[in-house]
Amino acid sequence: MARSLWTGSLSFGLVNVPVALYSGVVDTDLHFRQLHAKDHTPIEIHRFCSKEDAEVGFDEVGHGYDRDGKQVILTDEELAAAAPEKTRTIDIEAFVDLDDVDPIHYDHPYILMPAGDADGTQRAYRLLLEVMGGTEQAALGRFVLRTKEYLALIRVRDGRLTLTTMLFHDEVRPASKVPTPGKDSKPSKKELDRAVAVIEALSCPWDPSRYEDQYTKRLKRVVKRKEKGQTVKPPEREEEPSPVPDLMAALEKTLAEVKAR
Amino acid sequence: MPRSIWNGTVAFGLISVPVKVFSATESKTVRFQEVHLEDGARIEHRRICPNDGKEIDYDDIVKGFEVRKGEWVELTDEEIAAAVGSQSRVVDVDHFVPAEEIDPVYYERTYYLGSRDDGDDAYALLLAALERSGRAGVGRWVFHNRERTVLVRAHGDVLAMHTMRFADELADPGDFELGRVNRKPTKREIEMASALVDGLHTEFDPTDYKDSYRRAVLKLIERKAGGKEIELPEEPEPEPSADLVAALEASMKGRRGKRRSAGAKRRSRSRRRSRSRS
Domain A6-26+81-171 is of which CATH architecture? Predict the structure, then answer.
C-alpha cells in the first residue's frame, strides 16, 4: 500500500478516529528526467546558499516571508505552531447535501483509512461508514495539509471514506467580471427549444470509463518512435471555425443530423 | 478579472461558440521563499552532475525517458508536444450528461468561459439550453499541449468548464484494506451517530467556512517580526475514543446546547436519497 500523506484524528462530536490520509489518484503520467546531454546522466538538484555559494542541507532551510521589504524567517517547527490543532485534527463541522455543493470548489481526492489496528479505531471507522453510507450527505471539516488549510468533504465511496479537499469561498474568483452576452442576445423560445432538443438527443448517462487519456497513449508512442530513431513532428495549428450567421438554421440541421444517426 | 488564458471555440452540433477561458480559482496560501536559516540568504536550486559534483549549464541539459534501467530516450520539447495529437482550437462537445451523476472525485480544475467576437447569441443559447436541460456537455480540450476531458455547464450567468480526471487516474478504494473488528457497531451506536449527523445537518454556504490557518500564519509572522519567542506545541498521538456510546452520548448533549443558537439554517431531518454517483 502507498504511504500515507498525513495522519491525525477525524473527530465527529466527541468521537475520535485516528486516521491516515492516502492520495486518491494514481500517477499515470509519463515522467521525463533532466539529463546531462553528453552522457545521459540524470542530474540532481541541490540547494545552495546564494550568499555563501555553498551547498545547504535540507534542515538548514527555512521559510522566508517578505514583510514590507523586511524578511521574517520561520523554521518548520515554528510554522507548525501556527495552528497545531488544525494540522492534527479534521473536525467535522457540518453535514451537507452533496447536491448543494458547487463542483467549482472541488480540488483533490484522497482516501481516509483508520490508522492502527486498535479495535476502538476500527469500530469507530465502521460506524462512520455505516452512518454516512447510503445517504447523499457529506461531512465538512477543515484541516491543514502541508502548509495550506483546506475545507474537506468526506463521504463514503466504495466502502471507504473519501476526502475531497475544497477551495475556500474566497479562492473562487467571482464570475461577475467574465465577459458575457447582454440581454439582447437572449435566444428566442424556438431557438431554445431546438437547442434543448439537440442536447436531449445527444444525452447519455455519465460513464467515466468511456474517457481515455489519449495524450499519455500518444506520448508513449512518441517515445517508442524516437527510440527507433524515427522523427517526430508536432501537428500544425488548426484554423478556428467562425460563428454561424443563422443559429436557427444550424440548429435545425444539427437536429436532423443527430436524428439520422 | 485577470487576462484570459486561452481563446478558442466551443462547438456543439453545427453551432460554434467563440470563447475566452479564464481561471475560476486561485490559491490564497501565504507564500514563503526558501532561505538559508543561518544568514537569511535566498536558496538556489542548482543542477548538479552526480558524477563530478559540478554544476551543469542549462544548455547542456536534455529531457529523457527511461525505457529500460539506465537506458534513456532523449526527447525535445517539440517532440513531447507532438503527443497532443491535434492543435485544435475547438472544444467539441459531442454529448451531454446529467451533472449530478458525477462523483466529486472526477473534478480537477475549473475555468470560466467568457464570450467574445460575434459569438454572443450562440453563447447565450448554449448557456440557456444547458440551464434548462440540467445537463452538462462533455468534450475534449487541448491546452498547454495536453488533451483533457472537459465538462461545460451553466454556472449562473456564465459557462463554467471543468477539467475532469480519467477513471484510471483514480485510486480504487477497494485496494485499501480494512482491519478486522471484534464487534460490529451496535444498533444503538448507529442510531445515536445518525442522530448526531442529522443534528449537524445544514445547508451548504461556502461563506460559512473561512481559512483560519492563513490568518494564524500571518499572526505568527507578526509575532516573529516583533522578536517574540514562538512556543512549539507538543505532538500528542491520536487516540480512539475508548467508549463509543459514551462519546456519542456526550456529543449529543453538547449539540443540544449549541443547536438553539444555530438558528433556522439547520433542518431537523436530513434528506436521504438512494441515487448513486459514479
Answer: Beta Barrel (2.40)
State the smallest CA–CA distance between residue A147 and chain B in angstroms: 8
CATH architecture of B6-25+83-168: Beta Barrel (2.40)
How far apart, in whole angstroms, are the C-alpha atoms of residue A87 and residue B212?
A: 12
Q: Count how many pairs of residues, chain A against chain B, have C-beta atoms within 8 Å.
A: 609
Write the pLDDT tens digit of every residue in A187-219.
Answer: 999 999 999 999 999 999 999 999 988 888 888
Please report the ipTM that was assigned to this predicted complex: 0.91
Give per-residue pLDDT as tens, B21-50: 999 999 888 999 999 999 999 999 999 999
CA dihedral B213, B217, B223, B225 (to 10 degrees): -170
Domain extent listing, chain B: 6-25+83-168, 187-229+246-265
Q: Could you tell me the residue ranges of all domains in chain A?
A: 6-26+81-171, 186-204+246-261
Strand order in the sheet with A70-74: A70-74, A61-67, B33-36
Of A15, A105, A213, which is closest to B248 when you measure between CB atoms?
A15
Residue A109 in contact with partner chain B when CB distance is under 8 A:
yes
What is the Cα–Cα distance from A120 to A116, expressed in whole angstroms? 10
